[in-house]
Design a protein that fits this description.
Layout lengths: L12 H9 L10 E4 L4 E3 L13 E4 L2 H6 L3 E2 L14 H12 L7 H6 L4 H12 L3 H18 L4 H7 L5 H12 L9 E8 L6 E5 L4 E6 L5 H12 L1 E5 L3 H14 L16 H10 L8 E2 H7 L6 H9 L12 E2 L12 H65 L1
Parallel strand pairs: 2-4, 5-8, 9-10
Antiparallel strand pairs: 1-2, 1-3, 5-6, 6-7
Length: 404
């Protein structure tokens, strides 16, 4: 496959300022703005009053803003992840995970020094459901897992703290999409993962990852519903081993430590879609291909549009790198997570690969230096051996003279 010429993707100051004025969340984590009159740098979504254009300076990352002597804004906290989980939400989620079958009451909130209305408001903002709805969904997810393991429905109902069998069945069917007696329905679990480009939703079972998308992707609700229907699965809040693994691998990816993902994947595409996704995995980090090149790689050179559709149908963002495919003209094309994120991901991978190549060059240079020094060291050793041989010969001749 012929490697496409790399296209430079610099920050567009006018576009950045327009995004700043509109508080465009698509650019959160993509750039930062330094305000010359205050010495503060912010996210593009900062709620503070917007500065004049001539007082703005744009940076690709927070480190560049810090090196330019700007200090972080106290309102939008640009050094944290966009939409990072609040301390209240983290504490409550951890409490639910410690006791997933617990039924929460007012006194339980008091024990955690959290007001019930605060929990309700922050969970609705974060997850689109209240804390009580979240905890109930978690209880039902645990009950569903127990039923699939062979436990009786009545026992699972009582463990989930439901007194009424009809209430348990109704709540179960609303969240899981099937009555509790249906053991053919599978259980999937969903969790949010914070990243520098905003939170992502991960959906997995105990063995593999089914979906990984940015939470603000257009049509994500429809994707999740199609996933649930295709696998005849119920989806509830929770964490599994594949979710924990992809969270660690994403942290390494965004930190520039690794571009490799080893989390087991569960892909549900057609044979053609899977062929496209397999080919996407062969595009090296730091490179981009055109849609036409991708079509040729799957032996369908005339199916450029179909290849683009399969590329857009990928539900495992970043892991299957659909962001590495751009237009033949060098323009970015499309991306479900938003073009600012696509631009950032391409630039991030190029920076990481350039840094890795630089380290390899240094290592090769050191090896060459050692190789050049080796002949000199070898000559010193040879001269030392010659000297030892001559000394031994002189001693032998002296001994023969003494005997005569």
């Amino acid at each position: 496959m012929k490697r496409m010429e790399q296209t430079q993707l610099p920050l567009d100051s006018d576009r950045c300022y327009t995004a700043l004025l509109g508080r465009d969340a698509d650019y959160d984590g993509v750039f930062y703005v330094g305000v010359k009159t205050t010495g503060i740098f912010c996210r593009p979504t900062c709620p503070a009053r917007k500065p004049k254009r001539e007082n703005c300076e744009f940076f690709a990352d927070a480190q560049a803003a810090l090196l330019a002597a700007y200090r972080p804004c106290a309102r939008c906290r640009p050094l944290s992840h966009p939409n990072e989980t609040s301390d209240v939400v983290r504490r409550l989620v951890a409490a639910v995970e410690r006791e997933p079958l617990k039924r929460w009451r007012e006194a339980d909130f008091d024990a955690l020094a959290v007001h019930a209305s605060t929990a309700r408001r922050q969970f609705r903002k974060r997850f689109g459901m209240t804390f009580v709805e979240y905890a109930r969904a978690r209880r039902l997810g645990s009950a569903f897992k127990a039923i699939r393991a062979g436990e009786r429905v009545i026992d699972a109902q009582l463990e989930a703290r439901f007194d009424s069998p009809s209430g348990f069945r109704d709540a179960f069917a609303r969240i899981m999409g099937a009555p509790p007696a249906n053991r053919t329905t599978r259980a999937l679990f969903a969790a949010w993962i914070d990243t520098p480009l905003g939170p992502m939703t991960a959906v997995a079972d105990e063995r593999a990852l089914y979906l990984l998308e940015f939470v603000d992707r257009r049509g994500l609700e429809r994707e999740i519903e199609r996933l649930r229907q295709r696998h005849k699965a119920g989806i509830a809040p929770g964490r599994t081993a594949p979710i924990a693994q992809i969270e660690a691998e994403l942290a390494a990816y965004f930190a520039g430590r690794s571009m490799t993902f080893k989390t087991p994947l569960a892909r549900g595409g057609s044979p053609f879609q899977n062929a496209v996704w397999d080919t996407l995995l062969t595009i090296p980090p730091g490179e981009t291909w055109s849609y036409a090149e991708l079509a040729r790689a799957v032996s369908r050179p005339r199916a450029v549009r179909a290849v683009g559709t399969a590329n857009g149908a990928n539900q495992l963002a970043i892991v299957i790198p659909c962001h590495r495919v751009i237009n033949t003209s060098g323009e970015l094309g499309g991306y479900g997570g938003g073009l600012p994120r696509k631009r950032w991901l391409i630039e991030h991978e190029r920076r990481c690969c350039t840094a890795a190549l630089g380290e390899e060059d240094v290592a090769e240079h050191s090896a060459d230096e050692r190789h050049r020094q080796a002949p000199g060291e070898e000559l010193v050793e040879q001269l030392a051996r010659v000297g030892e041989t001559r000394s031994a010969s002189d001693e032998q001749r002296a001994a023969r003279r003494q005997r005569r």
